[in-house]
Amino acid sequence: MHFLMLVGTFFWASNIVAGKVVLRSMPSIALAQVRVTGAAAVFLILFAFWRNRPSFKITRGQLGYLAITALFGITLNQIFFIGGIGRTSAAHAGLIVALGPVIVLILSCAMRLEALTLLKSVGAAISLGGVVVLTTNKPTPGSDATVSGDVIMLLGTAVFAYYTILLKKVANDYDAVTLNAIIFLLGATMMLPVSARALLAVRWQALPVDAWWCMAFIVGCGSVLAYLIYAFALTELTASRVAAFNYLQPVIAAGLGVWLLGEGITSQAIAGGALILFGVYLTEREGREQDVLATERP
Asked: For the segment 139-194, what is each residue's pLDDT rounded down to a tens digit?
């Protein structure tokens, strides 16, 4: 199971690099639509051919709640996430995604769902300080990091954090395949009016081979397999043990960015990243098991 979690973490980190490759050939909103529509299609196929799957019922009220959940977790999150990775480096993207648990904490406290302790306050402050250090970092030659890209990534992490809070209320009502099929289908449908024009403008026949392979990876590995591995891991491992793998994601993303994209990493970026991860560690130290889903899965 630990090996599977490592594979899932690698898939999510690799998503960032694969997305940057595809964005050389198409607009970010078009790629976001391809990702969520492809994932929705795969989940629906799994749902249709799953024998003896658990039965379920959805009321109109539940469907409305799931639509709101999908709006934040799929539609808005992917618009910001894909848009952000095209404007920042793989290292910056991985670190900002890792900030998810801290944003969940802040939102939970603001919504009075969780008490804000001294340790959590210190951890959140340290992580946010790390973001400041990271975003004010002067990028090295070959790096795509920009302040606007970091801010867009931060918005993506924030909406996914809110999605995590919403998802907690229905996570036990459906199995992982059914829930993901519904969420991705609703999210893809709500994104289509925004992305339709960009999709029509893409010259599909002119896309390079590496773009097609990367899109297939983003849908199959970075979306479907990674989400299923994560859901299964939470049933076999403690939430705190699963959360520990979050710290590997920015490291893997940064390493792949240097290796495959030729990105550089400055000492200031390393310092900012260390502050972010240390702050995340402090906020999770008190066993906030209900919030460990908040990683952007990117």
From this structure: 666 567 788 999 999 999 999 989 988 988 888 888 888 989 999 999 999 999 99
Cα 223 vs. chain centroid, distance in angstroms? 9
Picking from 264, 218, 181, 189, the residue whose alpha carbon sits closest to that of residue 26 is 218
Angle at 213 between CA 207 and CA 216, to 5 degrees: 110
CA–CA distance, 117 with 187 (Å, rounded to integer): 35
CA nearest neighbour of 85 among 157, 169, 145, 167: 145
Looking at residue 215, its amino acid is M
> If you count DSSP H runs as helices and E runs as strands, how many of each does the chain have, helices first?
14, 0
pTM of the model: 0.86
Packing angle of the helix pair 248-261, 2-22 (nearest 10 deg): 40
Distance CA 136, CA 81 (A): 20
Report CA 138 to chain centroid distance, whole Å: 25
> Helix (H, G, I), strand (E, B), or coil: what is residue 262?
coil
* CA-wise closest residue to 196 among 69, 27, 7: 27
